[in-house]
Design goal:
mainly alpha; Nucleotidyltransferase, domain 5; 3-stranded antiparallel β-sheet; 12 helices; 55% helix; globular
Length: 260
């Protein structure tokens, strides 16, 4: 895995409306300074009230918001741009999928917590903080920072409405399930999911039903549609119903073309 996919990064509880505000600011053409100042004003009375710490929780939240929608990691610029284009036309319910996709593409840790949460929900109908933390520590290491970050991501899921508290403390039930039928959005989510995968390759069938996307029920999408809607993806036939989807390596293709 690349270094980005072994790092935590996403270590704060972040509300959906903060992602929405950030994306709208970027879509409106604001530069980094303007976006950061707007987020400072938005969070001033909500996070670390009265604190001027250089790397306090408010600053860490702003860093995550910026990295998700503005200063995205290398290779995610086109995915982000396509997401912003769809942001302008999609409904509020559909836009949650955009924020989810960009969060797991920019921060694979978000996707890892989601994957373990989704698997546990499928297996037993509920999940707990302790169960998810144990599985995430097995993946990221036995560190207290992993446990704390996992809990904050889970609380973000609660804030987003995709998990719900139960009468048992620390035990969560599924929240709202979003139906996604927009073909372009589904193809975009397939691509976003691949950036959170270790090798950037997975079967289309597995991606469309991935526990990483547990808050969403994706409509059917033929592999030919994925190839048409996502020019940055390649398709590899791997059996009658097990087509592999992978992120296109344009640099390697260019190298091969020159060698020929």
């Amino acid at each position: 895995m690349t270094n980005r996919k072994t790092q935590i990064g996403f270590s704060q509880r972040i509300r959906l409306e903060w992602f929405e505000q950030t994306a709208n600011l970027v879509l409106a053409g604001n530069d980094k300074t303007a976006v950061k100042n707007s987020l400072q004003a938005l969070l001033e009375n909500k996070v670390s009230v009265g604190s001027q710490a250089v790397r306090g929780n408010r600053e860490k939240i702003i860093t995550i918001l910026l990295k998700t929608w503005l200063t995205v990691p290398y290779g995610l610029g086109a995915l982000r741009d396509n997401g912003l284009e769809m942001l302008a036309r999609l409904s509020r319910d559909e836009r949650i999928a955009l924020h989810w996709g960009m969060a797991m593409a920019a921060y694979p840790f978000w996707g890892a917590v989601a994957a373990h949460t989704g698997r546990l929900l499928r297996l037993q109908g509920t999940t707990s903080v302790a169960q998810v933390q144990r599985r995430v520590r097995e993946q990221y290491g036995e560190r207290s920072t992993v446990s704390r970050a996992t809990q904050r991501v889970l609380r973000s899921f609660i804030d987003w409405g995709v998990l719900e508290d139960t009468h048992n403390t620390g035990v969560y039930a599924p929240g709202r399930l979003y139906q996604i039928q927009d073909s372009m959005l589904i193809a975009w989510l397939v691509e976003a999911s691949l950036y959170a995968h270790a090798n950037g390759t997975a079967s289309l069938k597995d991606l469309l039903t991935s526990p990483t996307l547990f808050p969403f029920q994706l409509g059917y999408l033929a592999v030919e549609q994925v190839a048409d809607l996502s020019p940055r993806l390649d398709i590899l036939r791997h059996g009658l119903d097990d087509d592999l989807v992978m992120i296109r390596d344009d640099k390697q293709k260019a190298t091969n073309a020159i060698a020929k």
